[in-house]
Amino acid sequence: MFVTGGVTNTAQYQNRLMVYDPTQNKWLSRSPMLQRRVYHSMAAVQRKLYVLGGNDLDYNNDRILVRHIDSYSIDADQWTRCHFSMLTGQNESGVAVHNGRIYLVGGYSIWTNEPSACIQVLDVSKEGKEEVFYGPSLPFASNGIAACFLPAPYATCPNLQPLQVPHHKIGNV
Prior knowledge:
Helix content: under 10%
Protein name: Kelch-like protein 32
Keywords: Kelch repeat, Repeat
Strand order of the largest sheet: 4-5-8-9
Organism: Laticauda laticaudata (Blue-ringed sea krait)
Largest sheet: 4 strands, antiparallel
Number of strands: 13
InterPro entries: Kelch-typ_b-propeller (IPR015915), Kelch_1 (IPR006652)
């Protein structure tokens, strides 16, 4: 299990990355994230971790939405800033992974002080051709939401086709 970021009980934003090693029954530190993040999401695709969204504090200690995406190579213990960014900031979002795509679902905007119905899709299935696009909107706005795909054959799942085609595709960011 990997954990990133967070805020301490003394209100300090963190950029830490920790991994639990069950063979040693202890938590181990790894290379820290490139930026502090809280209320962000994280997903694993092909031995990389991706951190998306969340917020940080600026030089005035005001919260700012984080739109860039960072990836962590588990094998190299190294963070990289992705050359593509989120189309809009999202924090307190759910996250689900399916076929090399990361779905960032719902969330909360610190700019509007409202929950979101937005779904952004990060396609990392083809290295060098990664892209971010809008997926279908939720039928309701919600933050603190959870999301997942069923680990079942496609034929037994509800129709996933609308999630596989970028209906609201903006293009490469």
